[in-house]
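Here is an idea for our session: we take a single protein and study its fold together. Which protein we use is up to you, so please pick one and set it down. Once you have written the record down, we can walk along the chain together:
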Amino acid sequence: MKRGWIAWDPSELPRAAFDARLAAARQHLAANGLPALAVYTDIWRSNQVRHFSNFMPYWNRALLVIPREDPPVLLCALSPRVYPWIRSVTILDEILPSPNLAARLLQLGSERGWARIGALDFAQFPVDLHTALAGAVVDVSFPMEPDEWELAMYRHAAKLGREGLEDELAGAAGLTDRQFTGRLERKFRRAGAEDLIILLTNGQTPPAPARGEILSQLFSVSLALEYRGHWVKLARSAVGPVPDRPRDAFCETLCGPLFAVRWEIARDGRRLFYGDSYRATAHGPELL
């Protein structure tokens, strides 16, 4: 399984957020004269369906179908034994067993009299679904900018990562990289992180998975953290922030206007890394 504990706290992410997102999608359907929209999800590509329903699969794959007039429907390749759990952590009520997603989508369209069905970012569907549905669906693409609720979740994820790294970096030199990775896993999982990617380096190489090395006084850690489906990326050096003029920088888009930057400098013959997650605004980058 890819993730840890998945939950839905309506006080943190209210039903109103999903209602607003679905309303925006239905406006695009109306503009394109389409009765429904199919959105693909799996464990590696879960952001879009999470955005509309809070569904994030532990494994396997699914299609979220958003009708223009009716509540959304999940076409699910998972066993029906997990449907009560899905309903408890999402806005979904109707879940249809769908071992063959393409056939089930076309069947649903026929049952409901839909002449055409939109598919969000259809070019990015897995090749087997794309082949089976080519000619039967209409490719629909539209920007999904983070709303106020998503921004709050991203900021919480970034705060969680920063504070956790600050706590654990002190005194970490002398541990093995595996011991330090275990400490971070325990801290962040207990704080609600669903997934983590932890990379470390003693400065001779870029950050990489733990391999049993003793951490030096100049080690750096790079962290990708998922909280309620919202990813942030951070990097820190055991010696603190890098100077304002780093030797090199790498920028990576997270979601829409959200991006992560990682800097590198040289010190005492070692490579030090520092990075954080930001939001692009009209006034320049804003720290999440």
User: Anything to note?
Assistant: The longest strand covers residues 270-281. The helical segments are 15-32, 47-53, 83-89, 101-111, 127-133, 148-169, 177-190. The chain has a mean pLDDT of 92.
